[in-house]
Amino acid sequence: MKVKLTVRSVEAIEPSQKDVIVWDADVPGFGLKVTPAGRRSYFLYYRTREGQQRRPAIGIHGAIKPEAAREMAKRWLSEVAQGQDPSRSRSDDRQAPTVAALCERYLSEHAETHKKASSVQNDRRMIANHIVPMLGSKKAISVNSDDIARLHHRLRATPYEANRVLALASKMFGLCESPWGIRPKGSNPAKNTKRFPEKGRERFLSAAEVARLWTVLNSKEGAQVASPAAISAIKLLIMTGRRLNEILKLEWRWVDLEGKELRLPDTKAGALTVALGEEALTLLTDLKTASGGGRYVINGARADRPLINLQKPWRRLRALAGLDDVRIHDLRHTFASVGARMGMSLPLLGRLLGHSQAATTDRYAHIGQDPVRVAADAIGAELKRMAVAIAE
Fold it and tell me: What is the pLDDT of residues 332-345, one digit of tens each?
């Protein structure tokens, strides 16, 4: 039975004891099924290039009008003419992973294999706080550039965080293209979203500020607001220019007091040997004497556990020193700035700091450890001179 499927003709068809099939008079293969219960639904019948029969549903009458269903049938027939299989595509789409599932796969198959634990933890935080709440229920294959742009724009108040989330999304959807084959190549929805400008912040302590901080670290007031371990950690950060976690997680087995160096097995730049100046060496020697055989240089509440949080004591100490705008990481900037003011070369400073860029670190490989140690010694001595001279 063939008729022109319109609202009137569709609703005029009476249900029977069996399904009633009515074909559209205009579009071949486009039809309507009426069940004995009176449910009317549109479908398309076609054969694939391989001769397989398909009859995918288009929609329920009422939720979709016959004109819209006819246009859908025409688009599918156009795809069939090009050798595609709309029914298979729809099935694949239904089985495609959600963004939430994609995130879990990214973490287990990529991040946990190729990234450091701290970076994986940060990825998890961004996924849980931003990506999954906004996109988690969407199919990964259906996410478009507008979805990513809205996610990015939503975080505009924190541009650095917004850009890191964008980079993470771009990486995950890049993996969707290759090697995972979830999305077609060249379809990364995060690729063309423009990043927010980021203002770099580098705060260097002046000689007077170093002196104030050092005085507080050695004062009774300082001892009342921070533990000896916290104060020792901050002194080591000042005198070594190391990153916070490199000091808090530092184990005695990595400290060579005789060789005057630290052998760090895992830093942002990978394994690293760090030269120690005399001031840093003195601090470590005193800590070793008082350590009582503990595993960590900076002990926490227990000798077999490191100090975990330095932020609270740091805020109290910097307040006493009148340095409320100074971050812990600014102590590293200060270490480098003192060396630069003393005329030390950028390659030498890069070696001292353990540059995080592998290519840049390679440029410093030819520099021997002895001049680096001399530089570390000189910076430490100058920082101590600055602190003591003004404090007196």
Answer: 988 888 887 777 77
